[in-house]
Specification:
The chain is mainly beta and 104 residues long. The longest helix is centred in the C-terminal third of the chain and has 8 residues, at 96-103. The protein is built from 2 helices and 6 strands; from the N terminus they run ββββαββα. A 6-stranded antiparallel beta sheet has the order 4-5-3-2-1-6. The chain has one domain (7-93): SH3 type barrels (Roll). The radius of gyration is 13 Å and the shape is globular.
């Protein structure tokens, strides 16, 4: 499978507590060889505390991303993964320039 920045994928996202992983949506930020840099997508609105973007499920962005709930793209929780952590592609975040502005 090939991946591009701006795609929303379902991944086994590692969490620090008890070396756990959970199946979660993530936004592809970059692809470099076998490493795929992703940002966590969570249903907890942290827009007042963390750098990121809140997306409502019923908005044009939410429908294109194919998210099941209103979600926050958390740009404070970014990791590198390999394809073995990816379950499947979900959708696309079409306003990636907003992400790039927050990352710079």
């Amino acid at each position: 499978m090939t991946f591009q920045k701006g795609e929303v994928i379902l991944v086994l996202f590692p969490f620090s507590e008890k070396n756990a992983v959970k199946l979660r949506p993530a936004l592809v930020l970059n692809v470099s060889g076998k490493l795929i840099t992703v940002a966590q997508i969570t249903s907890t609105n942290r827009s007042d505390k963390l750098r990121g973007i809140w997306v409502e499920k019923e908005s044009h962005l939410g429908r294109a991303m194919k998210i099941l709930q209103d979600s926050f793209i958390n740009l404070e929780n970014i990791i590198d993964i390999t394809e073995s952590y990816i379950n499947r592609k979900l959708g696309k975040f079409s306003e990636f320039e907003r992400i790039e502005k927050l990352l710079t």
